[in-house]
Give the backbone structure.
Amino acid sequence: MTILRDSAIEEAVAALAAGRLVAFPTETVYGLGADSTSDTAVARVYEAKGRPTFNPLIAHVPDLAAAERLVAFSEPGRQLARAFWPGPLTLVLPRQPDCPVSLLASAGLDTLAVRVPDHPLALRLLGAFGRPLVAPSANLSGQLSPTAAAHVREALGDKVALVLDGGPCRVGVESTVIGLSGARPALLRPGGVPAEAVEAIVGALEAAGDGPLRSPGQLDSHYAPALPVRLEATAARPGEALLAFGPRAPTGAAATLDLSPTGDLAEAAANLFAFLRRLDRSDLDGIAVMPIPERGLGRAINDRLRRAAAPRPGTPGLKGRGT
Ligand code: TXA
Ligand code: MG
């Protein structure tokens, strides 16, 4: 882990207070942070990412007490927060009447997503700034999420005041998003906390797709490399790279990276986005991906891979869309 000078945190706080964007590490992926209480700063986040729709943002807070000031917790929400915070779990709850977070972050809904990240730098920044930070993944809309500071600098370097470098992200896929404003808890996005672990606490989850703005039956292209992605591959075709999983990766592909030679899903999640980037080479024709088990973190990995493989929007030069 990189040790940061105190002056870097001070510089970040000053930039945030001036309404500028600061990228920071979390345990899942790097976030594109902004002062959640400023409409202008929140609008700049959408603008910097090139987000075509106002998909709602997550407010990051240092602890449960800070979250309770923003949203109205139900008992299941509190149980989940106690079990998994700080950690890769986001809870969507009704906004408090006096919630100071910009309505833009809720994108017109009466709910707000909140999370306490499990990363020392993120927690130091939140403590020093003293206000919640909205932070979507620090990538351009539709592209791969960043799991290292260099990924952020490549895509958004000219749009952020600074990038706090915390080294590679430990979890590697985004947080699990649980909706708690309906009759039953709903899985809005599989992520770093396995859905099974959430269900062990609050019972069966409703499957609700990815967020409220998702059109039914449609799989958005998202988390996408430039090359086409082919799933459930047993081997690479000529010109294809192979993203392998487990000990029996076939040989002979133009390039091969194994997400986890021992078949460890946590290791695979941590490697996913960085390996997709490394295989996304202009001298190759596509990326073939071996099957990943649909359990535990495998659900989050497969969700991201299905979106990476989904048909891309027709606009030339526009590779994908999403958050
Ligand atoms: O791990 C993460 O969650 C990372 C790090 C930086 O914290 N952040 C992240 O943010 O992935 P973003 O904006 O890329 O994804 C936020 C997800 C989206 O699927 C969005 O639709 C959902 O959370 N979401 C946010 N607010 C919501 C709301 N009020 N109701 C339903 N879904 C919401
Ligand atoms: Mg994202």
Observations:
- The two ends are 27 Å apart (CA to CA).
- Residues 265-279 form the longest helix (15 residues).
- DSSP finds ten helices and 14 strands in the chain.
